[in-house]
TrEMBL record:
<dbReference type="GO" id="GO:0050418">
    <property type="term" value="F:hydroxylamine reductase activity"/>
</dbReference>
<dbReference type="GO" id="GO:0004601">
    <property type="term" value="F:peroxidase activity"/>
</dbReference>
<protein>
    <submittedName>
        <fullName>Carbon monoxide dehydrogenase subunit CooS</fullName>
    </submittedName>
</protein>
<dbReference type="GO" id="GO:0046872">
    <property type="term" value="F:metal ion binding"/>
</dbReference>
<dbReference type="InterPro" id="IPR016099">
    <property type="entry name" value="Prismane-like_a/b-sand"/>
</dbReference>
<dbReference type="InterPro" id="IPR011254">
    <property type="entry name" value="Prismane-like_sf"/>
</dbReference>
<dbReference type="Pfam" id="PF03063">
    <property type="entry name" value="Prismane"/>
</dbReference>
<dbReference type="GO" id="GO:0042542">
    <property type="term" value="P:response to hydrogen peroxide"/>
</dbReference>
<keyword id="KW-0479">Metal-binding</keyword>
<keyword id="KW-0408">Iron</keyword>
<keyword id="KW-0411">Iron-sulfur</keyword>
<dbReference type="GO" id="GO:0051536">
    <property type="term" value="F:iron-sulfur cluster binding"/>
</dbReference>
<dbReference type="InterPro" id="IPR004137">
    <property type="entry name" value="HCP/CODH"/>
</dbReference>
C-alpha cells in the first residue's frame, strides 16, 4: 500500500513491485503476485500512471489496514493518521515512513533518497513479501465492493478527445473550441472543478455525491481531483455508463466525445492542471479567465493544502464554493476579505454554505451569472 502525496516515493515502490525478479520471489513464497494499491492522493497519481488500484480516500486509511491483508504500508507526507502506527501494531502490517519531516513513532523509518530510491524501494518490497507468511487468517476481512473507473484526463487527453469530435487542433497547445461551442450553445451550462478532502466534521462523501449528482443533472461538466475524485470512483461516476445521471445536453456531449461525465484529473496537487484547463478555455474563447462559466468547489475540504489550493483558484480569478466553514469566522474583517475583498483584486472570492443542496443552487446561479456576463 502506498499512501501520501509525494509521487516520487510511491512511483519507486510501484516500479519495484513490477520487477519480475520480485514478482517471482513473491510467487516462491506462495503468493499469486504483488498487489499494489494506493490511498489518498498518491493513489490518484499511481492509478493515472500505472493503473494501480485505489483502495480508498482519506477517511478509509484505517479500514484498509483492517482488511488484514496489507503486508506493508509505505507513506510519505500529509494526510497520514499518526494512529496508523498503533493500528498496524495490531496486525502484521509493517508501517514505513520515508520523509524526515513526517517521521512517526513506531514506524520503520527508511529515509527516501533520490540517488538510492530504486534500491530502497526494492528492499521494501522484498521486506513486504517476507511478511506475507505472517498474515493471520482469522483477521482477514475484504469487503467485496468494487468499482471500475476511467482515470487520467490531463489537459492533453481532454484536447485529444475534443479533437475526435471536431479537429480544431490549430497549434501545439490544441484547442478547447468544441467544448466552448457546447457552452455557448447552452448544451453545457459550464464546468465545476470539485476538489479536496473528506472532513470528519461531516458525513464522509455525502456532500461530494449530492453535489456531483445535482450538477450532472443540470448539464454541468465536472472535473475532479483528490479525495473527491476517489469518492466519484467509489460511486461509479467515473464510468461512461454514469451518463444516465446527466441532463440531456451533458449526456449528448459525453456520448459524442466518448468521456465519462466526471473527468479524473489527478491528485489534489493537480489543481495546476485544472487552472491550465481554465486558462486554455479562456484563451480559446478570447475572454478573461474571470469571465468563463467555470468555478471551483471543495465540499468537504480539511487540510492546510486544500486552503492553499483554494487560494490559488481564487487568485486565478475563479470563485470557490466551500461546503465547510473556514476557521476564520471569528474575524469579520477576514470573512469580508475572503468573500468580497478579494473580488476587487482578483475578480473572485469564496462562497460558503454547509448545506450541499443550497451550495449547488449558488453554484448554478454563479454559472448563469457568468453566462449572462458573456451574453450567452
Ligand atoms: S484531497 Fe485532502 S484529504 Fe485527500 S489526500 Fe488530498 S489533501 Fe489529503
Amino acid at each position: 500500500m502506498v499512501h501520501g502525496h509525494d509521487p516520487a516515493f510511491s512511483e519507486m515502490v510501484v516500479t519495484a513491485g513490477e520487477v519480475k525478479e520480485l514478482v517471482d520471489y513473491a510467487k516462491s513464497k506462495g503468493a499469486k503476485g504483488i498487489n499494489l494499491v494506493g490511498l489518498c492522493c498518491t493513489a490518484n497519481e499511481v492509478a493515472m500512471r500505472h493503473g494501480v488500484r485505489m483502495a480508498g480516500n482519506f477517511l478509509q486509511q484505517e479500514n484498509v489496514v483492517l482488511t488484514g491483508v496489507v503486508e506493508m504500508m509505505c507513506v510519505d507526507v500529509q494526510c497520514i493518521f499518526p494512529a496508523l502506527s498503533a493500528l498496524t501494531d495490531c496486525y502484521h502490517t509493517k508501517f514505513v515512513t520515508s520523509s524526515p519531516i513526517a517521521q512517526i513513532p513506531g514506524s520503520i523509518y527508511e529515509e527516501f533518497k533520490p540517488e538510492t530510491a530504486f534500491e530502497q524501494a526494492k528492499k521494501l518490497v522484498r521486506m513486504a513479501i517476507d511478511n506475507f507468511q505472517n498474515r493471520d487468517a482469522a483477521k482477514i476481512y475484504i469487503p467485496d465492493t468494487k468499482q471500475k473507473a476511467t482515470v487520467g484526463y490531463p489537459c492533453e487527453q481532454i484536447i485529444k478527445h475534443l479533437d475526435g469530435v471536431a479537429n480544431t487542433h490549430v497549434d501545439e497547445l490544441g484547442s478547447y473550441r468544441p467544448a466552448i461551442d457546447a457552452i455557448k450553445a447552452g448544451v453545457l451550462r459550464g464546468a465545476v472543478a470539485i476538489v479536496g478532502c473528506n472532513n470528519p466534521r461531516v458525513r464522509p462523501d455525502y456532500s461530494h455525491f449530492e453535489i456531483m449528482k445535482e450538477l450532472l443533472a443540470n448539464d454541468v461538466l465536472i472535473v475532479a481531483t483528490g479525495c473527491a475524485a476517489q469518492m466519484a470512483t467509489k460511486a461509479g461516476l467515473l464510468q461512461k455508463d454514469a451518463k444516465y445521471l446527466c441532463g440531456a445536453g451533458l449526456r449528448r456531449v459525453c456520448e459524442l466525445v466518448n468521456i465519462p461525465p466526471i473527468l479524473h484529473m489527478g491528485a489534489c496537487v493537480d489543481i495546476s492542471r485544472m487552472m491550465l484547463l481554465a486558462s486554455g478555455i479562456a484563451r480559446d474563447w478570447g475572454v478573461d479567465t474571470t469571465q468563463i462559466p467555470v468555478v471551483g468547489c471543495a465540499p468537504e475540504w480539511m487540510s492546510e493544502k486544500a486552503v492553499s489550493i483554494a487560494n490559488y483558484v481564487v487568485s486565478t480569478g475563479i470563485d470557490v464554493y466551500l461546503g465547510i466553514e473556514p476557521q476564520v469566522k471569528g474575524s469579520s474583517q477576514m470573512m469580508e476579505l475572503i468573500t468580497e475583498g478579494t473580488r476587487a483584486i482578483t475578480g473572485a472570492g469564496y462562497i460558503i454554505n454547509t448545506d450541499p443542496h443550497e451550495l449547488v443552487k449558488s453554484i448554478l446561479d454563479g454559472l448563469e451569472k457568468k453566462r449572462a456576463g458573456l451574453g450567452i
